[in-house]
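STRUCTURE:
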């Protein structure tokens, strides 16, 4: 069966598979079928909430989904422009059986995607994604051209953004930001009207940038993918901190008052150590993916904490948090989850947690970031002709063993295949940059000799 879902929902270019009008219609019908099945299991309201980011293609995708889902007798409620975590929150708040977010996250404006959330506000389990795939490709759904090309009336959540803003402020525990200057790069995305208001209403002086989306400029040379622009503005405005979001508002990259950038690893180190010191971290444990820097592991271990590692993907982090009854985890890319506040990564909540640490400690972000030394990291991509398990390649295993001996416990290496490309990724970290570069190159060359593509 053709695979429809990637690591984070369905993604592509509108008008091309899998986001042709016909496929979007089938996806809507299939999700409605899943809701009917769930109705008999959970007795929940037969309702779906749809949100979207600021891309031009969102409106057409929304119209098709509304027509398809409504034609199956399912109530559709529209949240309008909202962040992905905002949509997850509203799904749970309004007791819908499903939430659907139309967004391609950090991708360019010409891309788009569809993400699904369960009634609990968590990302739809992969088992249910597979059920949707099965129905879509089963040929059981007949196209209704009339429904496909006509929008069906749907209910609108009145002031959805205001409801979400009030929720975010309620998570701030009376946080007073008076006297703080904050630069907020909204990436022309879903947080353009939301993020500035949250910090302003908490008392900060806010300098919002890239907050006037036109449907074609989302993520364009700004936001979490280009945080250096935000960092320069922090210096220009003599601000205390800066935040750069992605298009759908579930990840953030920060800047301290000196213009130094902080990714998700720094964020987890700062907040995680703060929680550890105050006995606020369940089991003294946080969750990260295999891509988190070795320096984060050192900092947490030195403080008596423990790290659980997962495969790449915020869904994997969330599942590990739930399974182990933990509070906090995230990715180097800036997805950080606080389960006591949100069911998924919420960039604004992450910012509020950092601001709380600054206020409670009386320290500037440049001081707080000193809690972690970020080890040099080398990443090499090798194009391969097959994705043969590395443990089945003796020469590579021998090279791995030799490399670990050379690191001698002062670093780590990671070999993994890309989930979307014929590429092997070689990542080596350690305090000795020359050594890790040599190790990474030798591993990459060994893989190239065994299964590489001659280019």
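SEQUENCE:
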């Amino acid at each position: 069966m053709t695979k429809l879902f990637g690591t984070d929902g369905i993604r592509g270019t509108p008008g091309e598979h899998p986001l042709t009008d016909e496929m979007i219609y089938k996806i809507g019908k299939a999700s409605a079928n899943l809701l009917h099945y769930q109705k008999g299991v959970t007795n929940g309201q037969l309702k779906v909430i749809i949100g979207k980011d600021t891309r031009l293609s969102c409106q057409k995708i929304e119209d098709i989904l509304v027509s398809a889902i409504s034609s199956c007798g399912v109530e559709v409620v529209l949240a309008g422009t909202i962040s992905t975590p905002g949509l997850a929150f509203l799904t749970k708040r309004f007791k819908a059986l499903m939430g659907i977010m139309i967004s391609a996250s950090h991708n360019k404006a010409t891309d788009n995607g569809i993400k699904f959330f369960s009634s609990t506000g968590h990302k739809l389990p992969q088992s249910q994604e597979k059920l949707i795939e099965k129905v879509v490709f089963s040929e059981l759904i007949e196209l209704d051209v009339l429904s496909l090309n006509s929008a069906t009336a749907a209910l609108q959540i009145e002031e959805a953004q205001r409801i979400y803003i009030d929720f975010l402020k309620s998570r701030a525990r009376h946080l007073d930001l008076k006297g703080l200057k904050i630069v907020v790069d909204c990436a022309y995305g879903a947080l353009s009207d939301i993020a500035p208001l949250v910090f302003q209403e908490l008392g900060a002086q806010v300098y919002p940038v890239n907050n006037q989306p036109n449907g074609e400029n989302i993520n364009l040379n700004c936001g979490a993918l280009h945080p250096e622009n935000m960092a320069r503005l922090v210096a220009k405005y003599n601000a205390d901190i800066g935040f750069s979001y992605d298009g759908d508002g579930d990840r953030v990259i920060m800047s301290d008052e000196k213009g130094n950038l902080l990714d998700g690893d720094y964020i987890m180190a700062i907040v995680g150590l703060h929680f550890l010191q105050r006995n606020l971290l369940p089991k003294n444990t946080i969750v990260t993916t295999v891509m988190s820097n070795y320096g984060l592991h050192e900092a947490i271990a030195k403080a008596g904490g423990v790290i659980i590692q997962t495969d790449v993907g915020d869904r994997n982090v969330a599942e590990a948090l739930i399974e182990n009854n933990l509070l906090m985890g995230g990715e180097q890319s800036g997805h950080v989850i606080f389960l006591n506040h949100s069911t998924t990564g919420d960039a604004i909540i992450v910012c509020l947690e950092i601001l709380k640490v600054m206020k409670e400690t009386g320290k500037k972000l440049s001081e707080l970031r000193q809690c972690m030394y970020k080890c040099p990291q080398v990443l090499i991509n090798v194009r391969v002709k097959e994705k043969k398990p590395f443990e089945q390649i003796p020469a590579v295993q021998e090279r791995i063993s030799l490399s670990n001996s050379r690191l001698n416990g002062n670093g780590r290496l990671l070999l993994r295949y890309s989930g979307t490309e014929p590429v092997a990724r070689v990542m080596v970290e350690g305090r000795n940059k020359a050594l890790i570069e040599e190790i990474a190159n030798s591993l990459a060359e060994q893989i190239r000799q065994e299964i590489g593509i001659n280019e």
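REMARK: The chain has a mean pLDDT of 93.
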